[in-house]
Task: inverse folding
């Protein structure tokens, strides 16, 4: 990986205390790069930032229609959620509509994001289940697709399963990328994750935003209607999409953000080299802010996320995070 | 801040997914640099990595002797602890011995590190108190010093208070640095934190390790006897000092590690440019491993911390963190 420019700084006492490097690209649906910085051709694992791509075969196969999935459920299929009660409710509904059960999940279990949900589970004497996993919506969608394809659900997370083959085929076509020869890793939730250039991710999201892309239109509409389902309480994705409904944005592990601006026909992708979210959030906000596609109100929202104040345990202002893209 | 070399990589699927840059230095007590990489002259906020320095005036003033502090309590004065029940017990003891009370704390409150302690507090209907703050041992020591100096405890965290003046004077002398003209910020626990070169931090720790430095000998002995007090359950500092008692090491916020190897007369300091702990832990382990001052058993312990496997929520091995120093 080549050195990339500094995309955000963290300052204290008037000097830079820490700094973060990264790369980003904004593309239209024809592959024209509208803005970029750093190495946008190096392979990057998008991780959960491309859950929207993973959801496309669920829709295009007819599975989503067959099982009567609604907007809330489609949004959760594209989410990295907090495992809050509403997320669990919607994941359970997707499972039920497709005739699946929690026991079929192969994503593993982890504790919810919010302290109050952790305490609620712990005090009941229970342990977190796979349905609390931040990927349980995506996995419920994958199980629905397996059911629709008439495939055994066991092993639906493996590279050779029809579900993952469908995901790879869809993503390769959308992003103009040869995934057969791309590095492939195992994601936190056990599904394959392919590494490919940021430029191709941005292209794929621009194409997803095209009015002619039926599945993309549903996904973007669903996220706009239910931004809470994409992440949840105290999360950047939900906060910014709630305030800025013309933006579709999704975090991926290790400092990735991908998304699209449907009204402008643009897709974007950013990776913070060191995996930092604070830097990725500030830098993608500033990257989007610099595009000439927003109203003054929308610019103010993005500007607020491109720069934030750090407070300490007593509430004193002690520093700031500033995008430098 | 100049670009620094890559000190650790995080890989997945056979490629580097994320990478971390930083600088480090190992010095003897005469200021001879034994090993270094990156910019060791740039000002760095050591944050909690120099709590040992902040503890020196407590000892050298006579306050620690006067109030009868024991090794466990001195270790906690140098700690960033988890707020576990044993840490809270020892902090309370320091407060009591010096005639102080929790209400005098100016560090702010935050939840303990471990889930079980969070759940215990939450289920009792309580909120975390200042004594749960990871710095409550240091602050109990500072309150004891204020008492000993006959100073009002109110405002003991401010730059102009006799406690912080004593800290600055001690640290400036130990590290050969002019703190009067150094950038100064407010730390997470509200005390001043001065930025100065890693080289000077390493020098100060080498001097602290000198057999003639009485306060240093007490601090190092206390940490060796009570590594749990320095951090706690599931923490790097405690884990490695428990296995490797000839090492004194302390984390600081934003990816800093400082410490000393008393038997070799060496001090060290490392800063990960982006504030990452996973990188700082791997890189400092590898840095120490490369010094010709360890037994084969000790080298094996350091090697194990310089490289670690990443597992996902199902326990599958999905990647690794590797020091590259």
Result:
């Amino acid at each position: 990986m080549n050195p990339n420019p500094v995309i955000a700084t963290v300052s204290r006492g008037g000097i830079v205390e820490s700094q973060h490097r990264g790369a980003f690209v904004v593309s239209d649906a024809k592959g024209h790069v509208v803005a970029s910085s750093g190495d946008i051709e190096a392979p990057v694992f998008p991780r959960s930032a491309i859950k929207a791509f993973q959801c496309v075969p669920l829709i295009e196969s007819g599975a989503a229609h067959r099982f009567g999935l609604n907007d809330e459920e489609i949004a959760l299929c594209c989410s990295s959620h907090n495992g809050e009660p509403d997320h669990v409710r919607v994941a359970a509904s997707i499972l039920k509509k497709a005739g699946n059960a929690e026991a079929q999940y192969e994503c593993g279990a982890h504790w919810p994001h919010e302290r109050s949900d952790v305490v609620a589970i712990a005090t009941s004497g229970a342990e977190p289940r796979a349905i609390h996993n931040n990927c349980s919506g995506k996995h419920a969608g994958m199980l629905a697709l397996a059911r629709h394809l008439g495939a055994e659900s066991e092993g639906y997370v493996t590279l050779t399963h029809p579900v993952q083959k469908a995901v790879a085929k869809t993503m390769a076509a959308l992003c103009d990328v040869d995934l057969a020869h791309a590095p492939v890793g195992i994601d936190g939730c056990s599904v394959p994750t392919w590494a490919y250039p940021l430029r191709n991710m941005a292209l794929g999201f621009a194409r997803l935003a095209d009015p002619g892309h039926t599945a993309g239109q549903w996904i973007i509409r669903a996220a706009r209607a239910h931004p809470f389902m994409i992440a949840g309480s105290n999360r950047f994705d939900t906060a910014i999409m709630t305030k800025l409904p013309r933006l579709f944005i999704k975090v991926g592990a290790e400092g990735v953000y991908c998304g699209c601006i449907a009204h402008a026909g643009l897709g974007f992708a950013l990776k913070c080299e060191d995996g930092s979210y604070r830097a990725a959030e500030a830098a993608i906000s500033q990257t989007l802010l610099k595009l000439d596609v927003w109203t003054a109100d929308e610019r103010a929202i993005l500007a607020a996320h491109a720069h934030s104040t750090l407070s300490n345990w007593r509430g004193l202002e002690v520093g700031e995070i500033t995008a430098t893209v």
About this structure: The radius of gyration of chain B is 19 Å. The CA atoms of residues 16 and 83 of chain B lie 35 Å apart. The longest helix of chain B spans residues 136-149. The mean pLDDT of chain B is 97.
